[in-house]
Amino acid sequence: MEYLRFGTTELQVSAIGLGCYGMSGAYGAADDTESLATLDRALELGVNFLDTSANYGQGHNHRLIGRAVAGRRERFVIHSKSGTPADGHGGTPAYLRERCETSLRNLGIETLDVFCMSRVDPNVPVEESVGAMAELVREGKTRYISLSECSADSLARGAAVHPLASLQMEYSLFSRDAEAQGQLDACKRLGLGFMAYAVLGRGLLGGALRRAEQLGDGDVRRRMPRFAAGNIERNGTLLDALGALAAERGATVAQIAIAWTLAQGRARDVQIVPIPGAKTRAHLEENVRALELRLSPGDLAALDRAAPPSAVAGARTAVDDLARMNR
Known about the structure:
Layout: E1 3-5, E2 12-14, E3 18-19, H1 32-45, E4 49-53, H2 60-69, E5 77-81, H3 93-107, E6 112-117, H4 126-138, E7 142-148, H5 152-161, E8 166-170, H6 177-180, H7 183-190, E9 193-197, H8 231-249, H9 253-268, E10 272-274, H10 281-288, H11 297-306, H12 319-322
Parallel strand pairs: 3-4, 4-5, 5-6, 6-7, 7-8, 8-9, 9-10
Antiparallel strand pairs: 1-2
Helix pairs in contact: 1-2, 1-10, 3-4, 4-5, 5-7, 8-11
């Protein structure tokens, strides 16, 4: 496993992380026993970088990870988001403090490695929110702080108040807002890490999802236009060309998608750390093997032709969620 000095920090993180959202039932049923085995397997494979949130499973995700890290806390790097309340106003100093302290209790640890504000609050200047998180750093409750799904302007404004470790944002072959909106350029300019979540398109780039009926009643993707009837079938046709390239390279479509994300970091001189989710050991192992792939310029050009941003049908998340992003 390759390790990187993460963004502006002293943290050494694996070149691929593990997104833990699905371990709390977001994408259908999850099993705690298998999730814990997956976290164990991650360490065996050298994956030490975990992404979680105070809101995942109303604290379940943190309690689960707490069980996994008990007795070996020093082997993990934990990046935890604050979560956004239903009213979207999650940037007040009081809210951020409460979320950080609750996260520590549920995880059973004394200090987060990175505490991340999930969304910029339209009613609170980003400078005030970052200042409040900086106070948590001074108190020893988190080592570093970061932002998620914010605009390039907010990222720069926040970094002017206190050093930021990174920006977390959805980024994949199917979701390229970070290119068009300037967040990748901002991370390069500021020297920040970029955590790419949903690099498998929330399962679309895994290749198995082809119909809306495949999603269970409690699956969060039912709210996302990209997975609506009509859109999901159209997006499935894009996978056929991707599948052909994957077959040529002896890889899966998911591995090609992760390798594409890593290649964007090299091409753009930005530190991109993909954090694909996995709730089983089999999926984790498949994802990690993507690190062995090196896509050629010809491969990358073929992927751009096969799945240009304009060809993907439906917004990447629900309309009300999109309204909270790029602020």
